[in-house]
Amino acid sequence: MRSVWEILAIILTVTTLGAILSLPVTLPLLDDYFTPEKHEPNTVLVRAYVGQHGGFEPKIIKLKKGEKVRIVVEAMDLTQGFAVDELGIDIKPIVPGDLQESKLVYYMGTLKPPVNSTEIVVNKTGVFKFINSNPAGEMTPFQIGYIIVEGEE
Amino acid sequence: MRLRDALKFPPIAMFLTILILGTAVNIYASLTPPQSYQHELFMLNPTAVLTETNVTKPAKVSVMVMTGAQGDYAGWYAAIEVYDPSGNLYAVREGRIDTTGSATIDVWISRFAPAGNYTILPEIGPDPLHVSIGKPAFFNVGE
Amino acid sequence: MKKYMVFLALILSILLSIYTAASAEVYPWVYTPSVEVDPWVNPRAYEQYGSDVKVIYINVFQFGFNVKAVQMGNVEIIYPTELTSSIIKLKQGDKVVFRVKSYDVTHGIYIFGYMPPPSEVVYPVAPGDVVEVGPITFDKPGKFKIKDPVPCDALNPFDYADLIVEPNKPYHMLLAATFAVFVFTLAYVSIGFENRMLGVPLNRELDLLSLPLIGGILRRIVRWRGTTFLLQFVNLAVFIFIIVVGLIGNPTGGENFSITVVWILWFAMVEFMIFFAGRLWCTMCPMPVLGEWLARRRIVEVPKVRKWFSLNKEWPKSLDNMWISALSFLGISLIIVWLTTRPVITSLLFILLIMLGLILHLYNPRRYFCRSICPANGYIGYHANASIFSVRAKDRAVCLRHRYKDCVNGNPTGYGCPWGLYPGGNDENTYCGQCFECFRSCPLNNMTIKLRMVGKDLANIARRAKDRYDEAWMGFIRFTTAIFYELVFFGPYFVLKDWGDMHRAWGANLKSAGVLIPTIHDLADWFKWAIIVSGIALILFPAIFYAFSWCANRFAKSDLPTKRVFLAFSYSLAPYGLLIWMSFAISLLLINWVRPINSFIDPFGLGWNLLPMKKIPWHPLMPDKLVFIQAPFVLFGLALAINSTYNIARELFKDHRKALKATTVMSILHWIAAIVVVWVMAG
Questions:
Q1: What residue of A is the nearest CA neighbor of B116?
Q2: Domain formed by A40-150, architecture
Q3: Which residues pair with B92 in a beta bridge?
């Protein structure tokens, strides 16, 4: 016959370990909840990994024609870039993680605050390829995705 | 103390095991040329071809993923990423390139899936971590 | 045994030297026009900056720095592409411009003590770009690290070059300090004080649980079964979380909770815990708890009738030693480059340890997994004898009179010692896991916590250790790996790091674990690393130690066999190795302190904000004072090593003059080791 303390300890252990072990299933929900950019209106979050880690996530961005959208790109492992030649977008260098909180980043002879986002309005429908414009190893040419702009012509 | 006892002494045994294995591997490596798939990846040009571009849910959509490159890619990894009308990742399905140079991969659109324009991205590579991504293909899911 | 060991060590050393030399590339210093080096090396750069400015051309890559050329006026010096190309030597007052280029991914450059920290400004160097930094006037002498502060994947935390501004006064000062400590400690022991450590009597102890007010509170805490459960439960939850995050979180180690919290925070904290609190980590270690709870069929309480869920087989005597712990710790050192940078590897190791703990408890319900298998147990137990903390009987006479021995057999209030000891008679920390079960089972309240001077038990342990080769080798492995880790992880020798990394470059979680599959060439290079590490730890250093022990024995004109003296003196490495590990832990914490904090904000490395604060951009704390913070640990360790050697020798030889002679010889080795450590840190 187990004491109350023993039963409480078992319950505490099982529930805590169960919650932790269920993280692979609950992670997408937690990710939606704890990622600030996912709560901001008209904001698309793109996570940029090197090609070996999956490239861009997501690889498809769907927009409406004429809609103002802020695209935020997070470099997840090393410095990345985000460019859509047809739309004139080129955000780089996107420094990873905590370096986004640095005061200044040196780029092309100037010092400026770290960048990782841009606001766009696309006034034409179509499929536009985005690439990593900041070389990130041998799989850089394969880090691609597509912006699909839908709407009436 | 005999040599046999010395060889059984755990630190010496461990070190000698590493030394012997290391020597063997280094000799083998010196006789083996290095391999790289970088050039093939550039030539792959994956394409997704759908048998039907308009389906009513629930439905099974068959996608043929093929490479535009010459050569034998049988056994190579192929995959499709399927995005729903809102741009959310709906499914990832995998397969292997066969001797005809293509892989047929099915994706099931359930009755609970949203209706609208879906996007498919084809991928081919020697393994899941080194893939070339092709142009998107589209299909429409009706109620 | 002696002849064979020396002979074998000699042969193997020769083989190793030939093998390593054959693998290294060696080029002579050459003077050639810059166009033969790289087109980006600008032969006219000196005109831009003035002829008194040095222009240093650096290629930064995964994972290191290569100085390609140094230009002063129109004179260029091309560095050979070998190990020393990542060590820059300047003179005090030199004015330098760095032209930095990368060919693979975006890197950065940050010079400790001479550039603003990355929290202020970051200098990313993208492939194809040339970034200029400077001119910087190097007016402070010493050794400064050049670090790549921009994450460039897996081994970025270890991406260093060395910059030495001569005259390297801090280095010379530290060398002088080691000599001073060597001389003064020897002078102190020559006085002949018995049973003391650096002036403090070793028989002086403080019974912590007998202190007024606080003693009572501590006793209640320690005796309460809930204390152990809560400590173990919290750590078990954290470690299971670490396993899960390692499998599904960000594949880059520096962004993942599993790497930052385990290999920066825990790894460093454990060394300090050992010194101040003995085996307190083992009190709360989560690895064996699932197995122990299952075997006991209980988590917290003690059942009236004990029915083990275990086969209850006798543990094989051949395994009841430290060999597996010691050699598995070395085995972990062989994969340490992966372990500390790839979350999936950390997760897999922890899964393995927890499963082993579970399975072995089903074989025997005692802590034999901990005693004989766990790699952490080996070194924690070995170094815990240098701790100021101990669990002992208050009064041994009480235990001797007490017939039933509840601390061994257990009773309704506590289990018998899970570590298979007789707590009442225990006089060393090596195998006592500080589970405090004896506090609960002792009906006479005769167990207590004693604080004492470092090294109190060493002489006795050394005297008894007639065949404890396992413990001796634990000491050698720990001592050499402490120096090696400091050299490899914070040093400029990128070739060694690359070998240890199998040239894999990328981080890995479970999904991307395939990036770790090595080619045969990568494996071949890893074996070179493995041969060097294991050769030094298992053969070379023990052989040198043996040679010194033999000399010490002869000089002391002792009748004892050298083997006995060798094994006994190896225990002087318990405090010495611990203090060197503590100095390594200091550098780990001061350089990488930001990473565990950021991991509590964003454990999966996905860009979360769990805490109401922004992430802190990486920057080290007190980077130009690091060596002066580390040095006291090394010097204290040297003093302890010399005094411990004397105490052990006194116990062995029972004669002051013999002990002093032997100590003098061994102290030379300890002093040489201190010089090596100081050179690694500051030279």
A1: A150
A2: Sandwich (2.60)
A3: B81
What's the token pair of residue C653? Answer: 């030889």
Distance CA A47, CA A57 (A): 5
Answer yes or no: do B57 and B9 share one domain.
no
Could you report the per-residue pLDDT of B94-116, keeping only the tens digit for each?
Answer: 999 999 889 999 999 999 999 99
Model pTM score? 0.91
Domain co-membership, B66 together with B82: yes
Interface contact B6-C4, CB threshold 8 A: yes
Gap between the terminal Cα atoms of chain A: 75
Asked if A5 and C301 come within 8 Å (Cβ–Cβ), the reply is: yes
Q: What is the ipTM of this complex?
A: 0.95
- What CATH number has the domain spanning C34-165? 2.60.40.420
| Total structural domains within chain B | 2
Q: Are residues B84 and B49 in the same domain?
A: yes
Flag if B18 and C530 touch (Cβ within 8 Å).
yes
Q: What pLDDT does C48 receive? A: 76
How do the domains of chain A map onto residue ranges?
1-34, 40-150
Shortest Cα distance, chain A CAs vs residue B94, angstroms: 14
Please check whether residues B18 and B70 belong to one and the same domain. no
- B18 → closest Cβ in C5, C523, C531: C531
Per the CB < 8 A criterion, the answer to whether A122 and A149 are in contact is yes
State whether A78 and C152 contact (CB < 8 Å).
Answer: yes
Would an 8 Å CB–CB cutoff place B91 in contact with chain A? no
Q: Helix and strand tally (H, E) in chain B?
A: 3, 9
Q: Are A60 and B83 in contact (CB under 8 A)?
A: yes
Q: What secondary structure does DSSP assign to A16-61, as a single string?
A: HHHHHHTHHHHHHHHHHHH-GGGGSTTEEEEEE--GGGTSEESSEE
The CB density around residue C210, as the number of other CB atoms within 10 Å, is 15
Band (pLDDT 50/70/90 cuts) for residue B8 is confident
Subunit contact B3:C527, Cβ cutoff 8 A: no
Name chain A contacts of B81, Cβ cutoff 8 Å.
59-60
The candidate with the shortest Cα–Cα distance to C424, out of C440, C406, C411, C412, is: C406
pLDDT at B36 over 60: yes
Nearest alpha-carbon partner for C313 in C270, C356, C359: C359
Burial of C616 (0-12, 13-18, 19+ CB in 10 A): middle
Mean pLDDT of chain C: 90
Domain containing B25 equals: 1-34
pLDDT tens digit string along C526-549?
A: 999 999 999 999 999 999 999 999
Structure tokens at C136: 């910087």
User: If residue C76 lies in a helix (H) or strand (E), which one and from where to where?
Assistant: strand C75-78
User: Which of B4, B21, B23, B25 would you mutate first to test chain C, the one with the most C CBs within 10 A?
Assistant: B25
Cβ atoms of C241 and C249 within 8 Å: the answer is no
Test C473 with B6 for CB contact under 8 angstroms: no
CA B68 to chain A, closest CA, distance in angstroms equals 16
Q: How do residues C222-241 score in pLDDT, each as one tens digit?
A: 999 999 999 999 999 999 99
